[in-house]
Each structure stands twice: as structure tokens, then as C-alpha cells.
Amino acid sequence: MDKVPYEYVGQQTAKTYGTSITTAYEVSKALTFKSITAWRGWDSTEPTNYAGNLKGQVIDFTSPTLWSVQRVSPFVAYEQDLKQRQFSEEFQILGKTDTLSYVLGAYYFNEHASEFNTNDFTLVLPPAYLAALGFPAAVGNALTAQNIDLIGVNLGQTLAYHTRSESVAGFGQVSWKPMILDQRLELTGGIRYTHDSRSIDETSIPTAQPFTGQLPNPGPTPGPSRSGDLSFSNWSYLGSVSFQWTKDILTYARFSTGYKSGGFDARAGVDLATGRTFPFTFRPEKAKAYEAGFKTEFFDHRLRLNGAIFRTDYDDLQVPQYAGGNGFIPNANARYQGFEIEALAVPIRRVQLDASLGYVDPKYKEFLIVNPATGVVGDYAEQAKFPYVPNWTVHVGAQASHSLGFADLMLRVDYAHTSKRYFHTIDLLNPANEVIADPGQDLLGVRIALSDIALAGRATLRLSVYGDNLLDQHTRQAGIDFGPSIGIAGVNYGEPRTFGFDATLKF
């Protein structure tokens, strides 16, 4: 592996804090009032450098050739601060009779979020494209005459925005167990109305970069300053039927509709290599979900076996994209279908075996996007991928415990497998998508614990030693391809083989 000098731009930190209060008042055994109040805050500082101290050919008006070898960077953010605050309140009325159980409720959500991001990056493009950035045509012609195929332009940008979101909803659900069939049949219906409001105020201005190789003034604004307000509303429904064949065997079928609000993408701007403006807004996402399954227990509850098949049809699925330093969210039509199986067995006392298997087969039915080379809208449903979605997930675990008198000794082993995952949707915008993809992961972990160690009073202590990623896999957790105009891609790797110790005190 090649190594390059790396500039440390600061420590990344994140702080999350909050509180929640759940209160309930039981009017009678048939009627309860319940309130769930929550507040959360999140602060993050994320200075970022996607490459080391690199050098390359850039525009330089102090040079007689109009170029020189100077410092370049695909992306560096010395200051990148994010904040988020949210408040929610949910009120429920829960009731029941001999054959009915119901819940009526109202929900409120309010969120404020902001980002301040000063970043510098090098745009790499053919000299002929320089005119689109405001350079005189003679500059591009002079570089072409020197047989320069690609030239770097160092740009700086400060992005600052503040978003506000508000959601109000009312809902109700009723379950009915008729007296026939010994009340083994249950029918459920539900409805929800949601109204969402979204707004944004954004400023994006060009800033002087610390590197040589840009216009005497910083050039055209990398992104616009803008604001907007949007509102959406939706009715959602649910219906299900279940039947308890015996006390240990249940089957069910369910249909529901879902909704996700539309909104703004603050990173949607102008692709400086092509001059194309990415969409600033995206539409609401709606879904119709179908599921059928079973829940069973056998051998005096020593074996549990559950399974389900499912399908979800999406209209205007929100598919985040990233290309050329810009983000945008096109809407696509798609469907997910697959199955899940999970099992838990207790063959002998204090020994547990568990396993799960999941498969999903997602496909786009329509994925319209503009080809950056031609400017023509095309349907790329056959080529598009589903980011971060593996087709297969497998988990196998085993656990054994033994009482030592003063504590319980526990040994647990876990193995997890996920199949290949892509980090971007379409190679047309992110040509390194295949190169940076996660080929799949096989994770093995072991934990040995001493629990329920009695201390003074009611306090207990739990001591554990553990090993994670014992196969020492180079796990790819996330990846990003900046696209052809910036010309770099990268991968974030997970922890290597790790051993550790932890202690938990309960009192």
C-alpha cells in the first residue's frame, strides 16, 4: 500500500445528549392515558482531510506558462461544525374491552439543525472547460497548446445553513378478537394523518483558499445562497389479520402504507465541470408494504422458530446521490422483496443456540437521472444499485453459562456475515463505485463475562473480556467517490482485530 504525507486537521468529536419522560395514568383497567416527552441535542466538529500533502498542476497567473506545480487537495475542511436540536411529544389514549383494544394518539415533532463548513478543493478538468468557470478562452487555449490534458483549479467555499422541521400527526388503531374460535382470530386496522413543514436558509460564498492556483478573486460562487419553505401531508393505513392455531403457533398477514416527508438538500449546487444545476428539493416518499409470517415454539419452549416474507413497493423512493462535490436526492420507483428466518434453541439448561438468515432482492422500476456528459435524462433502473443494502445477512451465535456461586460465568461466540454492498447508486456519477464497494464481511467475536457479582447493598458488578473481528477482516464501513471532476474516492475502514475489557456497575 502506498503512503503519502498526511496533514492533521484536528480531532473529530461528537456529543449527544438528551432526556425523555414517560408518564401514564390508569383511569381504570380499561382506560389509560400516556405521555412520552423527549428532547435531544447533538453537536459535532468534523475537520476532514481526504488526502495527504499532494501536489499537482494548477492554474497559476504568476507563472509565464499559466501553470505551476502547487499544493492540491480533493477536499479539506478545516472547520466543519454541525448542530441539531429536537423536541417531541406523543400523547396516547389506550383502552380495551372484552373483544377490543385500541389506541388513539397525537404526535408533535420540532427540529432545528445547522452546519457551518469551510472547505477547499481542487477541481480537475480539461483546459477547454475553464471558460465555464469564467476564465478567458485564451487561458484554455494556451494550456492546450502546451499539450496539457488536465489542469487543476483550487476553489474555496463556505457553506452555512439552518433548517427547521415540524411534524404534526394524529393516529388511531383498533384490534378486534371476536368471540368465535375462542378469540384466536385477531383483526387490526389503523389510520394516521401527518402534516410536515420544512424550511431552510442557506448561504454559500466563495472564499480565498490557502493554496496557490485560483483566480485573483475567488471566482464564481460554488453554490447559491437561497431559502425555501415546503409543506406536505399524507394519510397512511394499516390492516392485519392473525390466527393463533395453538398456544405455540401463530400466523399473520399484514398490509400497510408508509410515508417520508420531502425536503431540501443543502449540498445541491452547480457541477462546476459541466455547469449543470442539481435539484435543490426532493419529493415525499411513499410505500406499500406486504408481509406474511409465522411465530412458533416447540418442545416445551426449547425451540423458537419465526419467519416472514415481505415486499415493499416504493413510489418516489428518496435515493441520495453525491457527485462533483454536490449532493442531490432524486426520486425513483422501486420494490424490495425477501424473507427472514430466525431460530433460538435451548438444547440443555444454560446453553443457547441462535441463528438468523435474511435475504432481500431490491430492484428499481424507474430511475430517471441526467447523464452529465450529454445532459439527457435517461432511465438507469437496470444499472442502479441500492447503497448500503446487502442481499444476504447471516448470524449464528452460541452461549453457555455456569453458576460459580458468587457470580455467573458466561461464554458467548457470535459470527455474522453480510454479502457485497455498494456505497453509491450509479457508476455513471461515481465511476469508482465498484472499486470502493464492500466485498462482504465475516465477523467473529467472543465474550467471557462474570455477572451478578454481589456488592454492598443492592449493587452488582459485571466484568467482561472480549475479542471482536477475530478474523482481522479489513471491513469497509463506508465509502465515497467524489466523481470525475474531483477525481478521488476513499473508504472508511472498521476496527481491526480488537481485544478489550469492560465493567458495568448496577445499583
UniProtKB/TrEMBL annotation:
Query: Mind listing the UniProt keywords for this protein, alphabetically?
Result: Cell outer membrane, Ion transport, Iron, Iron transport, Membrane, Receptor, TonB box, Transmembrane, Transmembrane beta strand, Transport
Span of domain TonB-dependent receptor-like beta-barrel = 6-470
Positions of the UniProt region annotated as Disordered: 203-227
Q: How does the protein associate with the membrane?
A: Multi-pass membrane protein
Compartments reported by the entry: Cell outer membrane
Matching InterPro entries = Beta-barrel_TonB (IPR000531), Beta-barrel_TonB_sf (IPR036942), TonB-dep_rcpt-like (IPR039426)
Q: What name does the UniProt record give this protein?
A: TonB-dependent receptor
What is the scientific name of the source organism?
Sphingomonas lycopersici
Taxon lineage: Bacteria, Pseudomonadati, Pseudomonadota, Alphaproteobacteria, Sphingomonadales
